[in-house]
Design a protein that fits this description.
The complex is a heteropentamer of chains A (241), B (366), C (291), D (255) and E (339). Chain B is 40% helix and 23% strand. Chain B contains 11 helices and 16 strands. The relative contact order of chain B is 0.14. Chain C has helices spanning 2-32, 39-56, 61-84, 92-113, 138-160, 162-172, 184-209, 217-232, 237-257, 263-277, and strands at 118-119, 128-131, 134-137, 212-213. Chain C has one domain (2-277): ABC transporter involved in vitamin B12 uptake, BtuC (Orthogonal Bundle). Chain C starts with a helix and ends in a 14-residue tail after the last helix. Chain E has 339 residues and is an all-alpha fold. Chain E contains 16 helices and 2 strands. The chains are: A alpha/beta (241), B alpha/beta (366), C mainly alpha (291), D alpha/beta (255), E mainly alpha (339). Chain C binds chain E through residues 29, 35, 83, 86-87, 90-91, 93-98, 100-105, 108-109, 111-112, 115, 219-220, 223, 226-227, 230-231, 234, 261-262, 264-265, 268-269, 271-272, 275-276, 279-281, 289, 291, and chain E through 67, 73, 126, 129-130, 133-134, 136-138, 140-142, 144-145, 147-149, 151-152, 205, 250-251, 254, 257-258, 261, 265, 290-291, 293-294, 296-298, 300-301, 304-305, 308-309. Bound molecules: adenosine-5'-triphosphate (2 copies) and magnesium ion (2 copies). One magnesium ion binds next to helix 1 of chain D.
Chain lengths: 241, 366, 291, 255, 339
């Protein structure tokens, strides 16, 4: 893929909270149409990276989305540019109904007329949600909440989706479902940057992967390749090398 | 200890806090009195002409600040005498300081008997005076007026329980009224800053009084009367000197028409002194003076008269001259300090509200 | 019976006003978990704007109401931008103390401009109807109805509109909202505008019902409305309404059936007892503390 | 006698069973691990043991004493200490003060003695400082004693939490995801460290962990939780082969 | 290693020698205040202001214990002050023989503080269950209840207030009580209980789980805090010689709050500075008239924006910190090196 194919590029990103450097000078890129995954232990800086991309934490370095520098662009404007995030812990508004949660995600959209079509698309992907349209987000089961979070990101008409640990807290069956949906969405044209603890699963669907450790990228390469890497196997898959 | 060749007079007034309007009136009258005497060339004390210099301190409607204002006037500004504070709760702490510093303090408006008395011995304080009559007198005047003139048998009282003035006068009214054969059928209270009295008034209505006594501040009177009328209480309303602000007309409009209150003076039955003051005040500030203004002006008048007869310009000489004033003709009537007391002998008047004016109705002598 | 009805009616009027002010507290709290102690003083500013509009500009009721609401809303938004926004990351109490400071500033600034209490002219025809001893004034009815209508509208805004949805979302989680494209600062400003404009409306209503106003009028009413908001469950719109009516009812009913001297004492003791049994207010829920 | 015995412990949140029918018997000096997917109820079990939540049903006894219904501070004073999944240090306080606070229950002097600086006060305070510093030195944190704890790097914050827990002189130590945020190297060190403190302080240890490497290597026994229920229990070796457990942690999707 | 140790020793000795300066200075000032009192050396106005400053320091310190050190938000502190003021005044005026009042004055003040302290429990108990804004309401309502109760007790003069106290609060007495309150709060804060108080502010749950008996700590903190508020009340009453319920209303509570947050939370030095700056500034700006009341809140708002924790927030004047605490780690190292 050429330069045009680069959807998101990050150069020399550093994020610090006070004295603590959460992310230390990392660079990575995501090409259009790819699933790229970022794995690493707790506190490695994965979520911080996503937050920086979405413009909700200050950072140094350069983040470009479709060639545009995102520095100084307000978080809600970045969403309008077509990049949505499914945050860590799902970020469902427990006091809003399923429908309201979805509706809120259309805040930045200009093409109000197309919105109904997108509800249909979302409900097509997650038929379970349709049955629970008027239920409060807080009362959904974990898996349903995660689906809602993904559906919500779809509603903002994003061409790129950032997901922070979508498998967190899900029963194995649901984990599989969610990953299946991610593959489907990706095949339908959405670029995905996926942060995961469930390294095995993530590596198996990702085109490429980066391994983050205490704020630094220590490894990168095609997903399948890393799946076989002994260091990865030992550290993240709980399998003795 | 006093410095310079001016007579230095301090004002300790409630400029901020819970009764800024009182402080404002007090300050205006003080400035007017001082300007008048200076325009007339100053004041003669023991054969020498002095200009009068005024020092106004805000007591912020707080007892501690009232004390520090008094103390500041005494030791920093080195005043010869102090006028104010007006409300008893601020006058009391200031009076303790004036008394112990041996500086004359005249409160224009504190009608509580305790202000001029030593709290321990109940003997009069030596340096504390007032320009107004005291609550028991006023309470009795109103009670007598209600019984004799209004022929009321059953009275209702609504007063602010958190305010010493209102409570004091309400209780004296009740005692006098019941001793003289009347009956107080409702004795209801509220708390300062309340604006809704509907609960109390509904209860009062049930008690079916012939008259209602409202010894409360003028800014509350319109609300109380309007709400009472709206509930269908149509009896005469009677008040005390705290009604006596020209602002009452602005605030009350027609609702207060025809009602009575006891006060210090009546502008229409005014003596030439009073007329001159009223005209002067109107010319200077564009409003009619209220009784805080009149009493402040009289406090200054008392001081000036005392100064003229003082043996020398000195705090003790002023106090002696003041205590011995033969008779002072003031805006609020003639007065004289009772032997060895800071309380003047003076009469009260009952005025009626008529056509947006306070109209003289009767005089009550002590 | 008439007596009880009359007192109930009184309670309803007092409660409506408390509820209206409590709503403003609750809206701001709901979204920022910040107690806007300046709210009572914004309410006072509303009453003074009513005076200016009605007396200086001689406007009739509807423009007066709108002008006060808009004026106070504007002031609220300005205060939020300059005094509260810089403190969003600071300890919560700093913002509360700032709000206290802003309130004191508003009181004393107004006082510096107007030392005397002001009278509000009768902007609305006020007739009193009597039904077998029960007095009902048109103003009373109007205050109660307008309060209810404003509350209803607010409830609609918060429950049904996109902006209301965003407000609820922000109150649930401030950090996620921007990730969905919701402009958080804008919504907070709108919330302040709505919350404070309700304070302004309450100021006008109060000024009509109790037409003598002064710069310190907001202090006590403000504290009481805050109590109402907390009793109802702070952050909860319907809770604020319920809290307001409860406080109004308690105050009036103590006076109605007990010596009025004990009103404050009994009213506050009752509120304390209520808080002991429902420590988070009537409709409030404790924020679950995840360990 | 067993150190901790939980029998049929059940806990509901708003009608949802976060833990149901949980049983556990810890022998002295045992090192037992609890694993399971997120939200399985692992932390809730810690909260039930330490008194943060009161079990809806069931009983928990510590060294023979029933502890359900006691306050957390009382339970801690009995000899159970813990660390937290999401670090809960006293952020604005110094590292040393964090550890000193954990001595609370063992102080014998009264407030009056503290006021008057009477003998016992001086002596105990010095002892506390000495003990705290020794502990910090033991855990190689003494160099940071005067540092404000929120300024420590993540890994040291975790270690400080352990130091703080040890300062309460526990018999039973509960560690909630102690390896979270550590790289494989650090995890290896942590494994040694846990074994070492167990020996030094003669502890019984119950730990929650997601890092299989750690769990499989140091735990003598494992419990696997899912949806509040214990789905497997046994030796790490057996657990590792248990198909149901494998399913919880691994899975495959064709993309 | 040798060099290092000796340097610490030197530092410690240095600190310890200089440390005598502060108590010495305080004793000197106390003696001075006695002399001033005896020979009327100071302008009574300045004396009065200094006494206000002193009383406000006690109030600020005591509220800082709850709001600053423990991290609660109590807004009814004037209520405790009222209790102390009324109890002490009632004793000196109505109970103690008149000629003995001056001698028994300290007793009256202490009694006022103790009653206030006991009543402090009333607020401590709800604090077991509620926190934050709900506890704020409890304290607010408490303040209003105290005011309303006093208004209804005729023996205390009701709204008319209580008077007849002699001017028994003198510079030495106020100074003495300031010293006591600073000393008590400092010694408590730098003890086990004080650490408990701080840990509640930082994280109440963790504190409980680190064996801190949070209920005990809260009871102690509320009792000590209200005790000193009561002491301040007794001094205040015998300075003004007149008290009424209104002097202890919500506005007074607000003033105390402002002094706490102005000076800085969780700091003795902050309380001293906050109370002094606020009191003195109010006096100095008196010539501004109404505008002083406009100006002061602006100062407060600006300070909060630029220093959200107040002037000395969470910092301490180093001589207030016991050597044992300040040099804890160094002394330990020194000892290790020695053995
Ligand atoms: N708001 C914050 N303030 C201070 N430190 C923070 C903040 N957010 C994160 N950190 C710290 O930054 C580091 C990286 O955190 P981050 O959340 O990015 O990690 P992560 O890789 O997403 O971990 P996890 O797997 O737990 O989600 C951690 O040490 C964390 O404690
Ligand atoms: N205070 C609470 N109120 C309501 N629900 C709670 C509370 N605490 C925990 N839960 C719920 O109980 C369940 C178990 O939570 P718990 O924290 O014990 O999980 P866990 O096994 O420790 O997971 P993790 O590995 O993510 O830490 C979850 O569904 C959680 O949402
Ligand atoms: Mg993360
Ligand atoms: Mg957990």
């Amino acid at each position: 893929m050429g330069a045009n194919g680069i959807m998101l590029s990050i150069e020399n990103l550093t994020i610090a909270y006070g004295n603590i450097k959460a992310v230390d000078n990392i660079s990575l890129e995501v090409n259009e149409g790819e699933i790229v995954t970022l794995i690493g232990a707790n506190g490695a800086g994965k979520s911080s990276t996503l937050r920086a991309i979405s413009g909700i934490v200050p950072y140094s370095g350069r983040i470009r989305y479709r060639q545009e520098d995102l520095r100084g662009v307000a978080a809600h404007r970045i969403v309008a540019m077509g990049m949505a995030q499914v945050p860590e812990g799902r970020g469902i508004f427990g006091n809003l109904t399923v429908m309201e949660n979805l509706k809120l995600a259309t805040w930045q959209r200009k093409d109000k007329g197309d919105i109904p079509k997108d509800y249909e698309r979302a409900f097509g992907i997650f038929p379970q949600l349709q049955k629970r349209r008027d239920q409060l987000g807080g009362t959904l089961s974990g898996g349903e909440q995660q689906m809602l979070a993904v559906a919500r990101a779809l509603m903002s008409r994003s061409s790129m989706m950032l997901l922070d640990e979508p498998s967190m807290g899900l029963a194995p069956m649901l984990v599989r479902d969610i990953f299946q949906v991610l593959c489907d969405i990706n095949r339908a044209g959405t670029t995905i940057l996926l942060v995961e603890q469930n390294a095995h699963m993530a590596l198996s669907i990702a085109a490429r992967a980066y391994v983050l450790e205490t704020g630094r990228i220590i490894l990168s390469g095609p997903g399948k390749e890393l799946l076989g890497d002994s260091r990865v196997r030992e550290a993240y898959l709980g399998v003795d090398a | 200890s006093e410095k310079g060749n001016t007579v230095r007079i301090g004002v300790n007034a409630e400029m901020t806090g819970d009764m800024p309007a009182v402080g404002e009136s007090c300050k205006k009258a003080a400035e007017m009195a001082v300007k008048e005497i200076n325009d007339a060339g100053g004041i003669d004390v023991a054969g020498q002409k002095y200009k009068v210099e005024l020092f106004v301190e805000d007591n912020a409607g707080k007892p501690d600040q009232s004390a520090s204002a008094a103390q500041k006037l005494i030791t920093q500004q080195k005043v010869h005498a102090i006028v104010g504070p007006n409300a008893t709760r601020y006058a009391l702490p200031a009076s303790e300081i004036a008394e112990s510093s041996k500086v004359v303090m005249i409160t224009p408006w504190s009608t509580n008997p305790k202000t001029t008395l030593d709290a321990k011995t109940n003997a009069p304080k030596k340096y504390v005076f007032r320009a107004c009559f005291i609550d028991p007198f006023q309470g009795r005047v109103v009670a007598k007026f209600a019984l004799e003139t209004l022929k009321a048998k059953k009275a209702a009282v609504l007063y602010d329980v958190a305010s010493e003035y209102n409570k004091g006068i309400a209780e004296i009214f009740k005692d006098t009224f019941e001793q003289s054969g009347g009956k107080v059928v409702a004795f209801e209270t509220y708390t300062t800053n309340d604006k809704d009295f509907s609960g109390q008034l509904t209860k009062i209505k049930k008690a079916q009084p012939d008259m209602m006594f409202l010894p409360n501040y003028y800014s509350e009177i319109p609300l109380q009367i309007q709400q009472a009328k709206r509930l269908g209480i149509n009896v005469p309303f009677v008040g005390s000197d705290s009604w006596g602000s020209q602002e009452l007309h602005k605030l009350c409009g027609n609702d207060c028409e025809g009602y009575y209150f006891s006060t210090h003076y009546a502008a229409d039955a005014a003596t030439p002194v009073a007329t001159k003051f009223i005209e002067g005040f109107k010319a200077k500030y564009g409003t009619l003076p209220d009784d805080v203004a009149a009493l402040t002006y009289d406090s200054f008048g008392l001081l000036f008269q005392a100064l003229k007869s003082a043996a020398k310009l000195d705090r003790d000489a002023i106090r002696d001259a003041l205590a011995k004033i033969p008779k002072y003709e003031g805006v609020t009537g003639n007065m004289q300090f009772k032997e060895g007391s800071g309380d003047p002998t003076k009469s009260a008047v009952i005025v009626q509200i008529k056509g947006g004016k306070f109209v003289y109705f009767a005089t009550a002598n002590p | 019976m008439t007596y009880v009805l009359q007192q109930l009616l009184n309670a309803l009027q007092v409660g409506s006003i408390y509820a209206l002010i409590a709503l403003g507290y609750t809206m701001v709290y709901g979204i920022l978990t910040m107690i806007n102690f300046a709210h009572g003083d914004l309410f006072m500013v509303g009453a003074f704007l009513c005076f200016v509009a009605a007396v200086t500009f001689n406007l009739p009721f509807v423009p007066v109401l709108l002008l006060s609401m808009i004026g106070v809303a504007f002031l609220g938004v300005v205060i939020e931008r300059f005094a509260y926004k810089p403190l969003r990351q600071a300890p919560r109490v700093s913002a509360i103390i700032t709000a206290l400071g802003v309130g004191l500033f508003l009181e004393n600034f107004t006082l510096a401009l107007n030392p005397y209490p002001k009278q509000i002219p009768q902007l609305l025809e006020n007739t009193t109807w009597t039904f077998s001893g029960l007095s009902v004034s048109s103003l009373q009815v109007f205050v109660i109805i307008l309060s209810l209508v404003l509350m209803w509208i607010l409830d609609l805004i918060v429950r049904r509109t996109m902006v209301g949805m965003a407000m609820r979302a922000i109150s649930w989680d401030k950090t996620v909202a921007p990730l969905l494209g919701v402009p958080v600062n804008m919504i907070i400003s709108v919330t302040f505008a709505i919350g404070t404009s309700l304070g302004g409306a309450a100021g006008v209503m109060y000024a009509l019902a109790y037409p003598v106003i002064d710069p310190y009028m907001g202090i006590m009413v403000g504290w009481k409305a805050f109590i109402a908001a907390v009793v109802g469950g702070i952050g909860n719109i319907r809770g604020a309404m319920i809290g307001g009516y409860i406080l109004g009812a308690v105050e009036i009913m103590v006076v109605a059936f007990m010596p009025s001297t004990y009103r404050d004492f009994i009213a506050f003791v009752l509120l304390l007892v209520l808080l002991i049994f429902r420590p988070y207010g009537i409709l409030g829920k404790p924020h679950p503390q995840k360990v | 006698m067993s150190v901790l015995k939980a029998e049929n412990v059940t806990h509901y949140f708003d009608g949802l069973a976060a833990v149901s029918g949980f049983n556990l018997n810890l022998e002295p000096y045992e090192l037992v691990g609890i694993i399971g997917p997120n939200g399985a109820g692992k932390t809730t079990i810690f909260n039930l043991i330490t008194g943060v939540y009161k079990a809806t049903h069931g009983s928990i006894s510590f060294a023979g004493t029933e502890i359900v219904g006691r306050t957390p501070s009382a339970i801690t004073a009995l000899g159970i200490a813990r660390t937290f999944q999401n670090i809960r240090l006293f952020k604005e306080l110094s590292v040393l003060d964090n550890v000193r606070i954990a001595h609370y229950a063992r102080v014998r002097y009264s407030p009056v003695e503290a006021l008057l600086h009477m003998g016992r006060f001086q002596k105990e305070e010095e002892e506390i400082i000495g003990h705290s510093m020794d502990l910090l030195a033991f855990l190689k944190l003494d160099a940071y004693a005067d540092e404000v704890s929120k300024n420590l790097p993540y890994g040291l914050q975790r270690r400080l939490e352990i130091a703080r827990a040890l300062a309460t002189r526990p018999q039973l130590l509960l560690l909630d995801e102690p390896a979270a945020g550590m790289n494989p190297n650090e995890v290896s060190q942590l494994m040694e460290f846990i074994k070492w403190i167990r020996k030094e302080f003669d502890l019984t240890i119950l730990l929650i962990e997601h890092q299989m490497h750690l769990v499989m290597n140091i735990c003598e026994r494992l419990l696997v939780l899912d949806f509040g229920e214990t789905i497997a229990e046994g030796l790490p070796r057996d657990i590792q082969k248990n198909p149901r457990v494998l399913e919880v942690y691994l899975g495959e999707v064709k993309c | 290693m040798m060099i290092n140790t000796s340097r610490i020793k030197q530092f410690k000795e240095n600190l310890e020698t200089k440390r005598w300066l502060l108590p010495a200075l305080l004793v000197f000032v106390f003696a001075l205040s006695l002399v001033i009192q005896q020979f009327e050396l100071l302008d009574p106005y300045v004396q009065l202001i200094i006494m206000y400053v002193g009383i406000n320091i006690i109030l600020t310190l005591s509220l800082n214990l709850i709001n600053g050190y423990m991290g609660e938000f109590s807004v009814g502190h004037a209520g405790f002050m009222a209790i102390g003021a009324y109890v002490a005044s009632f004793l000196t005026v109505k109970v103690f023989p008149t000629d003995m009042a001056a001698w028994l004055f300290p007793l009256a003040v202490i009694a006022g503080g103790m009653v206030a302290g006991v009543v402090g429990l009333v607020v401590a108990f709800p604090s077991f269950k509620t926190r934050g804004d709900y506890l704020a309401i409890v304290t607010l309502a408490f303040g209003m209840i105290v005011k309303s109760v006093i208004e209804n007790i005729d023996a205390l003069g009701g709204p008319r207030g209580f008077l007849g106290m002699e001017k028994l609060s003198t510079l030495p007495w106020v100074f003495f009580w300031v010293l006591i309150s600073v000393w008590v709060i400092r010694n408590l804060i730098y003890s086990n209980f004080g650490r408990g108080v701080l840990s509640i502010r930082e994280d109440e749950i963790a504190s409980d789980l680190m064996s801190v008996n949070t209920n005990h700590v809260k009871v102690l903190a509320f009792t000590v805090s209200s005790f000193f508020a009561g002491i301040a009340g007794g001094l205040f009453a015998h300075l003004l010689q007149f008290i009424n319920p209104r002097a202890f209303d919500i506005i007074k509570s607000t003033d105390i709050l402002i002094m706490v947050y102005l000076g800085g939370i969780g700091s003795i030095a902050g309380s001293v500075i906050g109370a002094t700056v606020y009191t003195v500034l109010l006096e100095v700006l008196r010539p501004m008239g109404i505008w002083r009341m406009v100006f002061m809140p602006l100062v407060l708002v600006l300070l909060m924006i630029f220093r959200p924790r107040g002037i000395m927030g969470l910092r301490e004047f180093r001589w207030f910190v016991p050597v044992r605490d300040m040099l804890a780690s160094r002394l330990w190292r020194e000892k290790k090196a020695g053995t």
